[in-house]
# Entry
Amino acid sequence: MHQLKDRGFDHRTPSEITPAAVYHARREWLQRAALGLAGAGLAPWAAREAFAQGGAPGKLAALPGARSAVAGGLVMDKATPYDDVTSYNNYYEFGTDKADPARTAHTLKPRPWTVSVEGEVKRPKVYDLDELLKLSPMEERIYRLRCVEGWSMVVPWVGYSLAELIRKVEPTGNAKFVEFTTLADKAQMPGLRSSVLDWPYTEGLRLDEAMHPLALLAFGLYGQVLPNQNGAPVRVILPWKYGFKSAKSIVKIRFVEKQPVSSWERAAPQEYGFYSNVNPQVDHPRWSQASERRIGEGGGLGGLFTKRRPTLMFNGYEPQVGQLYAGMDLKKFY
Ligand code: MTE
# Structure
């Protein structure tokens, strides 16, 4: 078998695969892989190749998604390796150390699972996970995720726009905000013993933010269902906001008239505002937000000498979401 060496991983060469369609599909995949979009694609071989590229090891159920056509839905940055995405996590219900969730979240039971969609809507409903999975076609979205702590990742998520679900429940005229509540079960979550946050973890968005096509209801990453530590079985991803807005393991979505208070706002209101849009010009009270470290990039010694990248306004999604905040004082509404 011919081998192509690429960043230490082995590929079979295209010449080994005979049918022309397969060859061309594969060539497209290799080009995408070269762009750092490994792990993307629909064909069964894509998941295997993703593994060869540092993608998902195939232990979890496959969850393919069609390449997203949403503006800003596929960033061209090199994707963060699966191992980093799934071993460097913030999920305080499973401990406050970055390595804790990967070690302890095996106790989370992502099935059976329901999400109650309620409040100011014409069609409130308790959705079973299987129903949610079928509600709209799955898409792959390659998003940057910027954590308020100053690091970032690039992850190929699988899901569909939250707007698809919102349209189904028909918000009333009183619905101005959306509140997300996540699971808080002492039997499954050892971190609940600590009072670092008020449990359950809650988050909120303005309704128009939640309706933005980039707001993703995510069920998977790297072509497989979400690992527990990344928020199985369903979470949101708001790529233009600091990572803590992207609530994991959601059990309730409530439409309300008044701006909800999130767990982080309640814990430290002077540090974490309701909007929490990524903004390199507004410092966190204790550190600058002007630059970031990309997880999985470069060097030993914990990446101590890795070059930091400048943080982009709205995490680089300004062309898509800037209009949502036109005229707002972003220092005041941080
Ligand atoms: N959701 C819950 N329920 N609990 C958490 O502790 N942490 C947030 C967010 N969602 C968190 C959560 C933070 S701070 C970040 S940066 C992202 O999840 C991390 O998501 P990831 O581990 O998939 O990268």
